[in-house]
């Protein structure tokens, strides 16, 4: 697969060779048949800012939606250095050995700066990226976490329609991206590393509360004992957290991406968890709530984007008045919303 | 002061006696002269949902804004049971003895249920509520935290215009109301109680990170030693937190609302803090950023309120389609925003 496959460059700028955009039916049939090239190009359409691309992307998504939803969606988080890429490499290969097809997606809002996520870099998941049962896609870029997350969520649906039955959504483990991932997955896996100050890794930011499953990484060699101690400490810490709406208890495991120790147990835990919440009806409830949540998020993002794109200068003027204490925030907001309502409709 | 003074009932329903609404100039002159009855009634206008009241409230606020901003705004939080009311009672009386005029406001989003905040209840601050140098106002009710917070923030400006030089904004200490208070005060004081499981009181929810100053309450009698130990532990915990943008270090103190021990030291700490951030220019920067934040919040709230009030039924229909997987969140959002843009403008 060439390095530029599915990248914006090949599709939008066409500086090397202008590709002809397939039509809707070609895209949909291709994706449903598991065509990776068409899947990649459809995702690029989702990520594109060109209105014509967005329109086509929405049409593709609408046709693929009825074929989506059949995967296990796993969120994976942990601070930088915890070994997320190594974990996903080993874990992904294990899943493929079990006969599964996996898609690895990333949410990294900082990728707006670097134009492409370092975490999604295929060179960091070398053996996995060479397998046809794995589809690795770096984080979309975007000017807001909401936008980045929305694109990733839509990519999940396309990957599912293309036959991937396990979706791993990785976050960078800093900032607010965990909440975004949490709102699009079935199970949330927190990776911790022994001895890095547990309170700084998760408890403090409330991420531990979100975790359905916790794995202490790098439990190998002389680090094994420390990992086991961290496991015990984490089990104690988990007791203090409020119970999950799922009714499930947060399990804690150790694992090593290097030796493979504990990796199959983590997959077993995930399967047990998914079976249980399927049975109680919680999975269905959760996915429905997530869909509602994203509708609300999308409305909000779209309204605010449209508002700012149409009122750019007027907004800045009012903002200055508010900062100088010449106008109240609420009064200024009313004036701006009134102006906004007079602007053209959106596409 | 009769119990219904400034309440919606006396103003809106007029079931007991219909009061004639003073005009804009009367309100403004009265507030600037420190007239508590007119201040109360103006706040009631801010809280009212009647368009005519809102319009008058906005006009009053606009006229008062240039006279606001001269107070010290203190946010106070802590879990239920930490003794917030007792602390404010003792602390407030101490400030009055020092010659200050204090307004006590509350943000309690749950008051939408109880129609009036139990925390703002004057019977819980008995001696304070009888003093003319103190103005105590319970939490406004509202259907969203954003709405409740916005009203409280506007109330701050009116109280300042009326000559109150110290504003205490109390939160219920559960949920998200801390963030709202944080975005409207100059200094954020976290009250902790010894032995109640510190991690559950603050660290876990990231509230400790927001605190500029921490006080361990109920440091009296046989509890003194426990409070001192909690103080040491808290000092250690604070070391692990990221440093404040203010450049200031989080101080930790003990106090007793019962004996008054430590109360004057807390006020000294607040004064030191405020002087320091005035000198560095951080206070000015912070207030400007808060004003911007509230403009953004207000725009967002107003757009979404207007959107939902105009699209109620259509929104529910689309939501159902999204939940059933018949439509994507983004596509549905686009359709809804298109419909919304065609609706009438706002007042």
Automatic annotation (TrEMBL), chains A, B:
Q: Under the cellular component aspect of Gene Ontology, which terms does the record hold? A: cytoplasm
Q: Name one GO molecular function term.
A: GTP binding
State the family it belongs to: Belongs to the SIMIBI class G3E GTPase family. ArgK/MeaB subfamily.
Q: What is this protein called?
A: Methylmalonyl Co-A mutase-associated GTPase MeaB
Which organism does this sequence originate in? Leptospira semungkisensis
């Amino acid at each position: 697969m060439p390095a530029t496959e599915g990248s914006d460059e090949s599709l939008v700028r066409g500086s090397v060779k202008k590709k002809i955009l397939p039509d809707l039916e070609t895209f949909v049939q291709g994706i449903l048949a598991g065509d990776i090239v068409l899947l990649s190009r459809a995702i690029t359409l989702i990520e594109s800012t060109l209105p014509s691309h967005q329109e086509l992307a929405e049409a593709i998504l609408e046709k693929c939606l009825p074929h989506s939803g059949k995967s296990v969606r796993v969120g994976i988080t942990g601070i930088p250095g915890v070994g997320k890429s190594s974990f996903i490499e080993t874990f992904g290969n294990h899943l493929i050995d079990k006969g599964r097809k996996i898609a690895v997606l990333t949410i990294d809002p900082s990728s707006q700066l670097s134009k492409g996520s370092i975490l999604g870099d295929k060179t960091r998941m070398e053996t996995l990226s060479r397998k046809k049962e794995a589809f690795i896609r770096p984080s979309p870029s975007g000017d807001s976490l909401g936008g980045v997350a929305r694109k990733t969520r839509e990519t999940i649906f396309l990957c599912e329609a293309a036959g991937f039955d396990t979706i791993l959504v990785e976050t960078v483990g800093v900032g607010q991206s965990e909440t975004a991932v949490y709102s699009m997955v079935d199970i949330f896996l927190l990776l911790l590393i022994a001895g890095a100050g547990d309170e700084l890794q998760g408890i403090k930011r409330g991420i531990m509360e979100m975790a359905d499953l916790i794995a202490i990484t790098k439990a190998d060699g002389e680090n094994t004992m420390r990992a086991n101690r961290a496991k015990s400490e984490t089990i104690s810490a988990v007791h203090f957290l409020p119970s999950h709406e799922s009714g499930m208890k947060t399990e804690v495991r150790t694992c090593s991406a290097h030796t493979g120790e504990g990796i199959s147990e983590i997959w077993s835990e995930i399967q047990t968890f998914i079976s249980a919440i399927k049975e109680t009806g919680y999975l269905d409830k959760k996915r429905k709530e997530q869909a509602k949540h994203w509708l609300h998020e999308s409305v909000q993002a779209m309204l605010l984007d449209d508002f700012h794109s149409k009122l750019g200068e007027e907004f800045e003027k009012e903002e200055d008045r508010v900062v100088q204490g010449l106008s109240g925030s609420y009064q200024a907001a009313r004036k701006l919303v009134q102006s906004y309502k007079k602007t053209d409709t959106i596409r």
